[in-house]
Write a structure and sequence with these properties.
The structure is a single chain. The protein is of the alpha/beta class. The protein has three domains: 104 residues, no CATH class; 104 residues, no CATH class; 170 residues, Dna Topoisomerase Vi A Subunit, Chain: A, domain 2 (3-Layer(aba) Sandwich). 40% of the residues lie in helices and 14% in strands. It has 18 helices and eleven strands. Strands 5-4-7-6-8-9 form a six-stranded mixed beta sheet. Strands 1-3-2 form a three-stranded antiparallel beta sheet. Helix 14 links the parallel strand 6 and strand 7. Helix 9 crosses helix 11. The protein is elongated. It starts with 11 loop residues before the first helix and ends in a 10-residue tail after the last helix.
Length: 401
């Protein structure tokens, strides 16, 4: 009889699946690795009742035969029936009596031995990691092939890493930054166990591996252009940390979102333009001299453009917006496009006119997800506003939009 005909009753494969789910959660390996003695474990079987024995005797016999052929599990029987049909012994529970029997039932003896070997090799070198392995054995097994490199990396970082060091300087044979990046999730779990608390910045997620383990992060750069003729280099890119202590000799600082707009920005006396790169504009916060400048931000007229302005204004309350007003938007209606993923956050730093336009964009008052990108605005309009911004720069409250 086909197995599918007996689907209402527990078959050996059902018991094995139940045990395998617990194996895959790491329960059995954790107990074994921790040295816990095995306690005989029973799995209850859903089988026929007395009525089934009377009405479906052939099916019952086929089901019992499945269990008689099962040699890996110890089967406990129970009587079912009575005076009418007579008592019949049928399987009631399947028992696993030892770790060794369990490995055989699941066919995982090779995996068990591999884990035991990894654990034995790790214990004398890194006891803290060995404890983590016992708690999460399946994680260790999934990385068995590269396990030696993972342990070597963790121990090297523990012994040699310091805050002035880049990840590139981790010097473990066979390990490079790509290896660390590829395995940063499990390395983070291991390092969290291995390192003392003061060497782990738990405010940083494992994805920020360098920040979490206090390596030197890749420096942030600011890219800017001098807008006046004869100003030496036409364009420079410098580290934010160095620029923070070196005020630029310009009265007006424009920050723009789009790269092509940045490159084509009109000439202006006593001014520079900074490529803000969208939300990356917030990297300007360490520039302590910006409050002394005539600071002007220009982003797309869309919800994210206003969100970037809001963030920048949290750091520099005097920053003014440029070409981010309702008049500019309506004058370029033929250039509108659709914003793919509009924001809807509360932006507390916007001025009243900016906030009103932002609200209309969020609520689709002017159309669905309206967006006017910087590069779609008339160049003549840009030249006019840049000229006015320079002229009004001495008054930081002046409206350049």
């Amino acid at each position: 009889m086909a197995v599918s005909d007996l689907s209402g009753w527990t078959l050996p494969a059902d018991v094995v699946r139940k045990l395998r789910r617990r194996w895959e959660r790491g329960e059995f390996l954790s107990r074994f690795a921790a040295g816990a003695p095995w306690e005989p474990m029973a799995v209850g079987l859903r089988g026929p009742n007395a009525r089934d024995v009377a009405d479906r005797f052939g099916e019952v016999r086929a089901w019992v035969e499945h269990w008689r052929r099962e040699q890996r599990l110890r089967i406990e029987m129970k009587p079912v029936g009575g005076r009418v049909i007579g008592a019949n012994d049928i399987p009631a529970r399947a028992w696993v009596d030892s770790y060794d029997q369990l490995w055989a039932v699941l066919g995982v003896r090779t995996e068990m031995r591999r884990f035991a070997d990894l654990l034995d090799a790790t214990k004398p070198r890194a006891p803290a990691i060995a404890e983590w392995m016992i708690a999460k054995p399946m994680e260790a097994l999934r990385h068995a092939r590269e396990w030696a490199g993972l342990v070597d990396t963790v121990l090297w970082i523990d012994a040699h890493a310091h805050p002035d060091m880049y990840l590139r300087q981790v010097d473990v044979p066979g390990v490079d930054t790509k290896f660390i990046e590829r395995h940063r999730t499990i390395l983070s779990e291991m390092l969290d166990r291995q390192l003392p608390e003061q060497r782990v910045d738990r405010t940083k997620p494992p994805s920020d591996f360098a920040g979490r383990y206090r390596f030197r992060s890749k420096p942030a750069y600011v890219r800017f252009r001098h807008l006046a003729a004869g100003a030496g280099f036409s364009e420079l890119s410098v580290r934010v940390s160095e620029l923070a202590d070196t005020p630029l000799d310009a009265h007006t600082v424009f920050v723009v979102e789009n790269e092509v707009t940045y490159l084509a920005f009109p000439p202006a006396e006593d001014a520079i333009v900074i490529f803000g790169e969208g939300y990356a504009a917030t990297r300007l916060e360490p520039l302590r001299w910006l409050p002394d400048k005539n600071l002007v931000y220009w982003g797309d007229i869309d919800t994210h453009g206003f969100a970037i302005l809001n963030r920048l204004r949290r750091a520099f309350g005097h920053v003014r917006s440029m070409l981010m007003d309702r008049t500019t938007l309506l004058a370029h209606e033929g250039q509108w496009v659709r914003e793919p993923n509009p924001a809807a956050d509360h932006l507390e730093m916007l001025l009243p006119d900016e906030a009103a336009l932002y609200t209309d964009l969020v609520e689709d008052v002017l159309g669905t997800a309206v967006r006017l990108e910087q590069e779609r605005i008339s160049y003549a309009a840009i030249e006019q506003v840049v000229r006015r911004a320079g002229e009004s720069g001495t008054d930081k409250a002046a409206d350049v939009t």
